[in-house]
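Key result, reporting period 2: structure in, sequence out.
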C-alpha cells in the first residue's frame, strides 16, 4: 500500500500529498520553529556537507551566540547517531547553527551565504524542509506536516503558493532542473 501510491519521477519516488499542499513560510508567525524543534536529533547531513561546513566554520561562528560556539568547540557541530550524520542540537532544541534576529531563529550558515561570505547555503535537508527525503533503495520524498508550520500552510493557501513552487530552489539543487520540471508537470501547479 505504501509504495503503490508513490509517483515515480526518474529514480525518485514522490508521495502524492507533497503535490497537494500549499505552503509559504511565515517567519513572522513561526519564528523559525523548524530550526528549534524539540529533539535530541538534529538535521541530517552528508560527509560532503560536513567538509563544506568545516571549510566555512570560522566565518559562520561570527553569527553565533556564545553557548553555540562553545558547544561546537567542545563537541563539534555534528554527531553520528544510528549510523547517520546529524547536526548537533543545543540542549535538544535549537540547531547549533541557530542565532536569533528580532526574536526569530535564523541559520548562521545561510546568513553567511546571504552576506556573500560563503558559497555553501546550508545542508540540503534544511533547505528542503518541510520536504523530507527517506532512503528505500532510492530516494522517497514526502511532506512532513508539523503543527509549527500551520501558518505557512495558511499563507500558502492565501497566496496560492504550492509546496512544489515554494521549494523550487532546493528541489533543483537536489535533483536538477529537468527533474523539477517533470515534478511541476505532474503537479499541474
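The corresponding designed sequence is given below.
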Amino acid at each position: 500500500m505504501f509504495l503503490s501510491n508513490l509517483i515515480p519521477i526518474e529514480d525518485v519516488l514522490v508521495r502524492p500529498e507533497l503535490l497537494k499542499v500549499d505552503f509559504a513560510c511565515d517567519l513572522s508567525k513561526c519564528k523559525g520553529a523548524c530550526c528549534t524543534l524539540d529533539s535530541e536529533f538534529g538535521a541530517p547531513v552528508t560527509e560532503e556537507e560536513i567538509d563544506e561546513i568545516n571549510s566555512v566554520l570560522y566565518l559562520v561562528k561570527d553569527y553565533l551566540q556564545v553557548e553555540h560556539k562553545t558547544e561546537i568547540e567542545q563537541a563539534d557541530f555534528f554527531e553520528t547517531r544510528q549510523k547517520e550524520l546529524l547536526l548537533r542540537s543545543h540542549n535538544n532544541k535549537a540547531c547549533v547553527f541557530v542565532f536569533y534576529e528580532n526574536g526569530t531563529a535564523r541559520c548562521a550558515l545561510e546568513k553567511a551565504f546571504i552576506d556573500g561570505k560563503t558559497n555553501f547555503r546550508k545542508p540540503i535537508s534544511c533547505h528542503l524542509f518541510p520536504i523530507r527525503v527517506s532512503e528505500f533503495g532510492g530516494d522517497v520524498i514526502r511532506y512532513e506536516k508539523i503543527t509549527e508550520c500551520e501558518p505557512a500552510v495558511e499563507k500558502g493557501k492565501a497566496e496560492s503558493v504550492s509546496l512544489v513552487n515554494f521549494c523550487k530552489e532546493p528541489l533543483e539543487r537536489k535533483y536538477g532542473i529537468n527533474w523539477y520540471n517533470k515534478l511541476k508537470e505532474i503537479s499541474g501547479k
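The longest strand covers residues 131-135. The mean pLDDT is 93. This case is discussed further under Risks and Mitigation.
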